[in-house]
Amino acid sequence: GPFIVCIDTSGSMAGKREQMAKSALLAIAQLTEKQHRKCFIIIFSDDIECIEIADLGTNFDRLVDFLCQSFHGGTDLSPAINYTIDLILKEEYQEADVVIISDFEFPPMNKELYKGIHLIKENETRIYGLSMGK
């Protein structure tokens, strides 16, 4: 199935964390290309922005645009998780793996998000965290 990558672009990720996060995202995009898997990127800070990469060659310019941006803003994981849950409940993304790239410096999630995460984990969705913090 596809990869859904949630990448934290908040101010606390600026600098070395930002460089490492962008490198990890590029590596995942290249991996999905080799494995003929889609890569759906959810960029989050105060709000979310989405990039779907069905073919790296076709969508490479959009990915490069993101990689050239600098990280700033606050951190709100909730919209990214809600969007991820909605995607996985669609037939096309039911077998997706989720990767969250963040320093994980944000407030605890509410109970509704935990319920949503539990729902997709029952669907055998694998969720991975790549911590850019200490």
Secondary-structure map:
Elements: E1 3-8, H1 16-34, E2 39-44, E3 48-53, H2 56-67, H3 78-88, E4 97-102, H4 111-122, E5 127-131
Parallel strand pairs: 1-2, 1-4, 4-5
Antiparallel strand pairs: 2-3
Helix pairs in contact: 3-4
Helical amount? 40-55%
**Major sheet details:** 5 strands, mixed
Number of strands: 5
Order of helices and strands: EHEEHHEHE
Using only C-alpha atoms, the radius of gyration works out to 14 Å
Assess the beta-strand content as a share of residues. 15-25%
Provide a count of the helices: 4
| CA-CA gap between termini | 31 Å
Mean pLDDT: 90
The structure class reads alpha/beta
**Parts with pLDDT < 50 across at least 5 consecutive residues:** none
Strands across the major sheet, in which order?
3-2-1-4-5
- Which shape, going by the Cα principal axes? globular
How would you concisely characterize the structure shown here?
The chain has helices at residues 16-34, 56-67, 78-88, 111-122; strands at 3-8, 39-44, 48-53, 97-102, 127-131.
List keywords for this structure.
alpha/beta; 5-stranded mixed β-sheet; 4 helices; 5 strands; globular
Overview of the structural elements:
This protein is α/β, with parallel strands linked by helices and 134 residues long. 40% of the residues lie in helices and 22% in strands. The protein has helices at 16-34, 56-67, 78-88, 111-122, and strands spanning 3-8, 39-44, 48-53, 97-102, 127-131. A five-stranded mixed sheet has the order 3-2-1-4-5, sandwiched between helices. Helix 3 (78-88) packs parallel to helix 4 (111-122). The longest helix has 19 residues, at 16-34. It is globular.
